[in-house]
Design a protein that fits this description.
By secondary structure, this protein is an all-alpha fold. 22% of the residues are buried. It has one domain (4-81): Arc Repressor Mutant, subunit A. The protein has five helices and no strands. 67% of the residues lie in helices and 0% in strands.
Length: 85
């Protein structure tokens, strides 16, 4: 479970990304789909899913690092709220 502030930042990342990245991040982070399931659902390669998740995690790290009251992105294990599987 994440704090409301972190959950809001994740939502901001999802809403502020390009369409494919938004769909991939939403399925992975909000619905806990595996990369294989996302690839199948969106009819894209599994490598594409991994690339889009990588980019979305980078956006989230930057938001967490720059958010007021949060020391660093490492304060919250980004992988813990965004599974890679």
């Amino acid at each position: 479970m994440c704090t409301q502030e972190v959950c809001d930042l994740v939502g901001d990342v999802i809403m502020g990304t390009p369409s494919l990245q938004r769909r991939v991040a939403g399925l992975a982070w909000l619905l806990a789909y595996s990369t294989k399931s996302i690839a199948s659902t969106l009819c894209v390669a599994q490598g594409t899913v991994k690339s889009e998740l990588f980019r979305a995690r980078g956006r989230l790290r930057n938001l967490l690092a720059n958010a007021g009251g949060l020391n660093t992105a490492r304060t919250y294990r980004v992988g813990a709220i965004m599974p890679d599987s």
